[in-house]
Amino acid sequence: MTKYEWLTNQHRDTSSSIVGHPALLQYLSIADGEACARTKFELTERMLQPCGPPPPKDDE
């Protein structure tokens, strides 16, 4: 497992945990000053590529 894959999994797990627990989602949305639905949408969208595009692979 590469560092990129590990970080991507960590970010996705954290985002899905926040979305899955309503109290955490509400806490984060209050801290950001946004609606819960907007925060949930942004976290769900961020799960696609949480750490940006993957680095180029070395074919060695």
Automatic annotation (TrEMBL):
This is Splicing factor 3B subunit 5/RDS3 complex subunit 10. GO terms for biological process: mRNA splicing, via spliceosome. It comes from Rhodotorula diobovata. Pfam families: SF3b10 (PF07189). InterPro entries: SF3b5/RDS3-10. One of its GO terms (cellular component) is precatalytic spliceosome.
